[in-house]
């Protein structure tokens, strides 16, 4: 009887161990930045997503990371930075920062992704961006002034500096509180997923871990 009881206990322990998800591993699921970057979010954890509207992987990840950020709520301050990678990307980058400056980003962010990927070559120049904004009902004069204004120019320069400071060389990439980096691609190196949905879920799980870790380190 005792042997049977011990066998059941050991089986339960081994089953629980097998069922428990492995903790994210430094160097595999995430990396520590060589130089910690400053954050201005107080007790909340800063989360920055580097992305590009033209990027199909960013497009696929966008609704998942948005839902994740909403679920995190007051734990985090979620920021996005559209990367710069040459003249062909500049119109989309200026569109992003224009919408952000006008307080319209949350309303139109996913719509821009849809427009970019619905038609090859969409939003590739200033005229196409202006046409898109007009069709969406955005105030034409205000948008044009913002798009070509000093505020957006400053944001473009700041984004370029951030790419260098954070050593961003692919996207999407997520930075947690100025010191940890992860991404769907990073997490997938250690545990290759069978589907894109699973890869995103794995990445978001690592992000949960890093937010909790960063928050505890603020204490």
UniProtKB/TrEMBL annotation:
Disulfide bonds: 55-58
Primary residence: periplasm
Keyword Repressor: no
Record protein name field: Thiol:disulfide interchange protein
Subcellular location(s) of the protein: Periplasm
GO cellular component: periplasmic space
Record domain Thioredoxin: where: 9-212
Organism of this sequence: Massilia eburnea
Organism ancestry: Bacteria, Pseudomonadati, Pseudomonadota, Betaproteobacteria, Burkholderiales
PROSITE patterns, per the entry: THIOREDOXIN_1, THIOREDOXIN_2
